[in-house]
Specification:
- A hairpin with a 2-residue loop joins strand 1 and strand 2.
- This protein has about 200 residues and is of the alpha+beta class.
- About 50% of the residues lie in helices and about 15% in strands.
- Helix 1 packs parallel to helix 3, helix 2 runs antiparallel to helix 3 and helix 3 runs antiparallel to helix 4.
- It has one domain.
- The strands form two sheets. A four-stranded antiparallel sheet has the order 1-2-3-6. A two-stranded antiparallel sheet has the order 4-5.
- It contains five helices and six strands.
């Protein structure tokens, strides 16, 4: 199989798995609902208006500009991926960039279309193709569900400012697309000397 076909397969598989999980979560769980897989791993349904790991850029205009930025970034990553395939870059680099592109596309699909496809998930399970959709194009919410509270404790009382407060590691809730981006970037950083000879 050619490197280009491997890249296309990676992108396709990540997108299919990411969107299948998100649509299942959206159509089978109420916002805030969770179930435990292990003591340190929960499936917890939440949505965010912004970036990876629940970070946000304020307001409707912030959401719009973030969506436009994502689209521009995906086009740039796509052009870069095509160039490295053409120039016969290391297969590992091509796969990592494909993972980053797939993750970015997965979250763009949520942002661009979920507001037009689903109704709200606050008090009931969302319905797809609902005429009572919750927002317009580029204003959808990104579905997150992976929660890993590996360490749950409290800051010691003597700790400045946070003393006595709850401490959870790892607190952010994220999705498979976020994971794909993170793994792709981390692998490039770890193997950069091998990938960029």
């Amino acid at each position: 199989m050619s490197v280009g076909k491997k890249a296309a397969l990676v992108i396709f598989l990540i997108l299919v798995i990411d969107q299948t999980v998100k649509i299942w979560i959206k159509t089978h769980m109420v916002l805030g609902q969770e179930f435990k897989i292990f003591d340190w791993f929960f499936v917890h349904f939440t949505e965010n208006n912004g970036m990876a790991y629940g970070l946000e850029l304020g307001g409707s205009w912030g959401k719009f500009f973030l969506s436009i930025f994502r689209i521009v970034a995906v086009v740039a990553i796509g052009v870069y991926l095509a160039n490295i395939i053409k120039n016969k870059a290391h297969t590992g680099l091509v796969i990592c960039v494909s993972m980053i592109l797939a993750g970015a596309l997965g979250n763009i699909i949520d942002s661009a279309f979920y507001g037009m496809l689903f109704n709200e998930s606050y008090y009931h399970v969302a319905q797809i193709f609902s005429p009572d959709h919750y927002s317009g194009f580029l204003h959808g919410k990104v579905v997150d569900m992976l929660y890993f509270p590996i360490i749950e404790s409290h800051y010691p009382q003597w700790f400045p400012v946070l003393g006595g407060n709850e401490f959870i590691f790892f607190r952010p809730v994220f999705n498979l697309a976020d994971s794909s981006i993170t793994i792709g970037v981390a692998t490039i950083l770890i193997f950069q000397k091998k990938f960029f000879k």
